[in-house]
Amino acid sequence: MAIDTYAPCPGGTGKKIKFCCADLVGDLEQLDTLIEGDQISAALDQVKRLEAKTPGRACLMATRTKLELAAKQYAEAATSSQAFLDAFPANPLALGQSAITDAIAGRMQEAAAAFDKSREAAGEAAGEEGRNVATELVRIAGTLVQVAAQLGHVGFAQGIVDWLIDQSLGSEDERRLMAAIVGSSGVPAALRTRVRLEEPVGAAAWRPDFETALAHARHWRLAKALTAFRGLKGIAGDSRELFTNIAVICEMLAKPFEASEAWAAVARMGGTPADDAVEAIGRTIALETEADPDRSPLVRFASRIAPLVVPGGEAGATALDLLDDKLRHTGSCEQTAFDRAQWVSRNAVPPRSAWRVFDGSSPARLLATLLIFARQTDREPEAVLQGFAPDVDAARPIVEPLLGCTFGGETGGEALPGTTPTNWLMGSQFRMQPPTAPPAPAAAGQPSMVDGLLDEQRAALWNRFLAIWPDTPLPELLGKTPREAVRDPQAARRVEAIITEGEATSRRPDASAAWTAMRERVGLPAPAPVESTRPLEDGVPPLRWHRLDMARLSLDELRGVLVTAVDAGFERAAERAAEAVSSRPDATPADRWEAFGVLEDRAASSVRKLEIIAELRRLAPVLKANDGMLDVAELRVRMQRGDEGDVMRLFEHVRREHARDQQVLQAFAEVMMEAGVDLSALAGRSSPGTAAMGAPGGAASSPGTASAAAAGKLWTPGGESSGPAGEKKVIWTPT
Question: What is the C-alpha R_g of the chain?
Answer without folding.
Answer: 30
